[in-house]
Amino acid sequence: MKRGLLLIDRGSKEREAAEELEIICKAVKTKGSYDFAEYCFLEVTLPYIDDGIQKCLKSNIDSLTIVPYFLYPGKKVKAAVTEVMKYQATTNVKFLVTKPMSMHMTLVRLVESRIKSALDKGGVSLTNDKIDVLVIGHGSKDPNAKMSIKYVTDELGHLYRNVDYCFLEIEEPNIEQGIEACKKRDPEVLVVVFYFLHEGAHVKTDINADLRPALEKHKLKKVLITQHIGTDQKMIDLIIERAQEVET
Q1: For the chain, N or C: smaller number of CB within 10 Å?
Q2: What would the pLDDT profile of 184-225 be if each residue is shown by its tens digit?
Q3: Are 196 and 239 part of one and the same domain?
Q4: Residue 77's domain is classified under what CATH number?
Q5: DSSP string of 97-116, one letter each residue
Q6: Domain range for 19
Q7: pLDDT tens string 156-174
Q8: Count of alpha carbons within 13 angstroms of residue 29, beta-carbon side
Q9: Which alpha helices (DSSP H) does 131-198 contain, by range?
């Protein structure tokens, strides 16, 4: 049986997002033994869902595993799934839809590795019980989004002196409030985690537009910033694991 896989991403105009998705799809195709692996976007830019579905169906596959590539459950995921399932009635290819990339220990381990890399790069040799962490997420009107990021920070809370979260937009605490709360705890080192899938506009410009003024205002002792999630091998493995959950 010929198997295909389609990642549905929210969408970004930044070329880095598409480049990362190309790398991810190539790795998933090889490691997951798929005959075809491609990506598309829910919004913002091409290829849209219709483009992705049509390309997949032309590849002569028997089943298509559809992966909502989102860090949070919510309206965007529901919209992506609703849109893609419209095509099921038009084909004999069997559609399988996975859970999004949320509420999973792999994300906790991935963030932990990003924190460790930032500490190593910054030359910090303190034990974890002297390290504070602030995870910056996107923000959403859907309450499940906050539950998802809280899952990660709660699990990390067992490893570091203090772990909290804030949001770039839509909901509070915002970035300035998050940094202010960290300042009150007077950390020796604060590691700021960019909890975003891609190096899009949010990571490249939007976060820093709020983060830099907040850091200048509150003047913490030492602040390190992690890389975004990107093409980490742990995410490749999580995509394949999510796919296998529905394929079996």
Answers
A1: C
A2: 999 999 999 999 999 888 898 999 999 999 999 999 999 999
A3: no
A4: 3.40.50.1400
A5: E---S-S-HHHHHHHHHHHH
A6: 3-100+231-247
A7: 999 999 999 999 999 999 9
A8: 15
A9: 143-156, 175-184
